[in-house]
From TrEMBL:
Cofactor(s) this protein requires: Mg(2+)
Regions annotated as coiled coil: none
Organism in which the protein naturally occurs: Yanghanlia caeni
Keyword Hydrolase recorded: yes
Name recorded for this polypeptide: ChbG/HpnK family deacetylase
InterPro entries the UniProt entry points to: Glyco_hydro/deAcase_b/a-brl (IPR011330), YdjC-like (IPR006879)
PANTHER family reported in the protein's UniProt record: CARBOHYDRATE DEACETYLASE (PTHR31609:SF1), YDJC DEACETYLASE FAMILY MEMBER (PTHR31609)
Transmembrane segments: none
Pfam families with a match to the protein in the record: YdjC (PF04794)
Keywords for the protein's UniProt record, in alphabetical order: Carbohydrate metabolism, Hydrolase, Magnesium, Metal-binding
């Protein structure tokens, strides 16, 4: 069982605080999804996710089902009230046999269609089965670790496996649309990364998923260069919240402490600091935003592509 991080709510540095934000409409709150990635990768990540769930700062979390802490902390996740999804993985072996490749090599293989389609679908089926065995239910949604769910070959196999495994009319996961919701006011690195994600199949994935009848979020926020600490992240988050439209999704990667040998480094801890701060509650109120909660919540329509 994961233990609490001991983090207490506090204000961000003055430079990161709210300055001027126009008041939102008083008629009704605008709803959005906030999903934390990588549950199960490390106990510190799980701890941060569960604490943010207790603060009503998350809608859900995507699970790396072969991660070392997933099974250990699954019971706490079930009790958290969060949506729980499969964070489909083809790039982190995590001690398992299978089709795992470095991201650049995987991208080249998918676009050249060199992967064995039977192995691809088999790996997807195995991760879905692992999720069901541990969580005892259908995943609420499916997305991809490093957005692999949108890559050619993987995308096609995923949609086919989901359609066969979860027929329309019964419990069925929704899918993450990775089309950028808004780049207004974003720094060059964030714009560049959003452009790369788009080139790697964002719109194609949405078109294909829509034809297959899957629900999706409207658009994606939360893309940036994973640098700058809490002060930079707070400025970005404030901009994302200001740009959010109903049905958009903000992805995040919080951790209660730095994870050893992790590419995101200390930035996970910075994200956790910001999301658990008092200022986020103020920004949500000022922007008239409401974070979706509970497995009954469904995303809005995806962007036309």
């Amino acid at each position: 069982m994961v233990s609490g991080s001991g983090h207490t709510s506090r204000s961000l540095p003055a430079a990161a605080r709210l300055t001027h934000i126009p008041e939102g409409s008083p008629l009704s709150a605008r709803s959005l999804l906030v999903c934390a990635d990588d549950f199960g990768l490390h106990p510190a990540i799980d701890s941060a996710v569960l604490e943010l769930a207790g603060r009503a700062r998350l809608s859900g979390t995507g699970c790396l089902v072969d991660g070392p802490s997933f099974a250990m902390n699954a019971a706490a996740l079930r009790q958290s009230g969060l949506q729980a999804g499969l964070h489909l993985n083809f790039t982190e072996a995590l001690g398992r046999e299978g089709l795992y490749l470095p991201l650049g090599q995987l991208i080249r293989a998918c676009w050249a269609r060199r992967l064995d389609p039977i192995a691809v679908r088999g790996q997807i089926a195995a991760q879905l089965a692992r999720y069901e065995d541990v969580m005892g239910r259908v995943p609420d949604y499916v997305d991809g670790h490093q957005h692999v769910h949108q890559f050619p070959q993987i995308r096609d196999a995923l949609h086919a496996e989901l359609a066969a495994r979860y027929p329309a009319g019964g419990p069925r996961p929704w899918l993450r649309c990775t089309v950028a919701a808004s780049m207004r006011g974003m720094p060059p690195m964030a714009r560049f990364k959003a452009g790369v994600i788009a080139l790697l199949g964002a719109r194609s994935q949405c078109r294909h998923a829509r034809r297959m009848g899957f629900e999706m979020n409207r658009g994606l926020l939360g893309v940036y260069g994973f640098r700058g600490g809490a002060a930079v992240y707070a400025v970005l988050l404030r901009a994302w919240l200001g740009a959010a439209q109903p049905g958009d999704l903000i992805m995040c990667h919080p951790s209660a402490q730095a994870v050893p040998d992790d590419a995101l480094g200390d930035q996970r801890r910075a994200e956790f600091e910001v999301w658990s701060s008092d200022e986020v509650g103020e920004w949500l109120q000022r922007f008239n935003l409401q974070i979706h909660r509970g497995v009954s919540c469904r995303p809005g329509p995806a962007h036309a592509a």
